[in-house]
Amino acid sequence: MAFLCLDISCLYIFLLCKAFGCTLASNVEIKVNPPQNFEIVDPGYLGYLYLQWQPPLAVDNFKECTIEYELKYRNVDSAIWKTIITKNLHYKYGFDLNKGVEAKIHTLLSAHCANGSEVQSSWSEATYWKPEQGSLETKIRDMDCIYYNWQYLLCSWKPGIGVHFDTNYSLFYWYEGLDNVLQCAEYIKENGKNIGCRFPKLESPEYKDFFICVNGSSESSPIRSSYFIFELQNIVKPLPPDYLSLTVKNSFDINLTWSIPEGPIPARCFIYEILFTEAGRSWMTNTIENEMHITRALNESQELCFLVRSKVNIYCSDDGIWSEWSDEHCWEDFPYEERSFFSSGDTLLTYQFPFT
Ligand SMILES: *[C@@H]1O[C@H](CO)[C@@H](O)[C@H](O)[C@H]1NC(C)=O
Ligand SMILES: *[C@@H]1O[C@H](CO)[C@@H](O)[C@H](O)[C@H]1NC(C)=O
Ligand SMILES: *[C@@H]1O[C@H](CO)[C@@H](O)[C@H](O)[C@H]1NC(C)=O
Ligand SMILES: *[C@@H]1O[C@H](CO)[C@@H](O)[C@H](O)[C@H]1NC(C)=O
Ligand SMILES: *[C@@H]1O[C@H](CO)[C@@H](O)[C@H](O)[C@H]1NC(C)=O
Fold first, then answer.
1. How many domains are there within the chain?
2. Type I cytokine receptor cytokine-binding domain spans which residues (predicted)?
3. Which of 86, 100, 210, 263 has a CB 3.0–4.6 Å from the CB of 149, allowing a cystine?
């Protein structure tokens, strides 16, 4: 028995055979259609796009079967496709809107519905480009965003090259949890023009995509928009420790300790870099503890000094920015006496933001 099958008709044959117990010839093919109306929808969240689709035609024929979809998506210049398999009819993802977006999807029919080997439909494809305006040079330059001490987000930028003097930029942002895109409420200005934004206190913005768009206007020419996606825990610049102590015991054993920087960052989230100086020679080392034991290299060294800076460690973020260095803390050798000096660097307690 040999069937030549096209699309849905195969299923009928397949199901009929299942019902009436006929044996299928090896050249019978089971086919499934691709999802319908596959599209990329931009809800206006500055890069957070909805990929959505409808079930394939004739899917009712597979009532007892699991229909799944394999979705592949990427920014157009990206070498790799991201892939997910889902039973849903939508997927949401944060894309870089400076570039185009492309996606493709096909239907998967599980193996037990298709005589032992999974069946795939052909692909449905969709693309999305945010309409562009203005030349590339009108975009802002050197965007720099820092999440100070896991508390205050601040971004700054430089105007595009050679833009007309009336050009003024605006910053918009969104992250999951906000109902709408918001505009910067407190711009940092230079000569009346916006060159940065001091964000208000944000409600749990970490560990999710944070979308920013800086666009602009000018009477003389359109201004190209710039898009950015951050995860705020990856751009944290903590405070340095503000209290250091150095103790020498038995002439040799040195105990360095420092305070955990103040603020909302948990103690387990820090890595420290220690710059230690003994008799004019310096070396650096890292630790995730807030103390360190070392041995004096030179018995006769008169002065031991160290300073510390901090960063969020790999257990809490993928990346981070080193804090400023703490004040230097030193110990001077006094025979027959065990001493330690303490310092509390006042300048470091009150954090100074740039642009204030
Ligand atoms: C179904 O599977 C059986 C056993 O693996 C095989 O003999 C038969 O040819 C297959 N039929 C189809 C239509 O693939
Ligand atoms: C730029 O925009 C800000 C508000 O976003 C406004 O206060 C300021 O006057 C504008 N500057 C110019 C030169 O248009
Ligand atoms: C800038 O982007 C915001 C948010 O998408 C939009 O509401 C606004 O109209 C844009 N402004 C310009 C000048 O394109
Ligand atoms: C190192 O110094 C700190 C604070 O001065 C102290 O709590 C700790 O016990 C000391 N550790 C050792 C091994 O001496
Ligand atoms: C280090 O110096 C002390 C005091 O000057 C001395 O008693 C001790 O023997 C010296 N130790 C070494 C290993 O040189």
1. 3
2. 142-235
3. 263
Angle at 206 between CA 204 and CA 208, to 5 degrees: 110
Q: Are 101 and 49 in contact (CB under 8 A)?
A: yes
User: Which domain-ending residue is among 93, 109, 128?
Assistant: 128
> What is the domain extent for residue 108?
3-128
pTM exceeding 0.90: no
Q: Which atom of ligand 1 is nearest to the CA of 27?
A: 13
- CATH number for the domain that contains residue 279: 2.60.40.10
Token look-up 């999440």 returns 147
Ligand 4 pocket by C-beta < 6 Å: which residues? 245, 247, 255, 257, 291, 293
What separation in Å is there between the alpha carbon of 205 and the centre of ligand 3?
A: 22
How is residue 163 written in tokens?
């833009």
Q: How far is the CA of 181 from the centre of ligand 3 (A)?
A: 10
For ligand 5, is residue 347 a contact (CB within 6 Å)?
A: no
275/331: higher pLDDT: 275
Phi-psi region of 63 (alpha: psi -120 to 50; beta: other; left: phi over 0): alpha
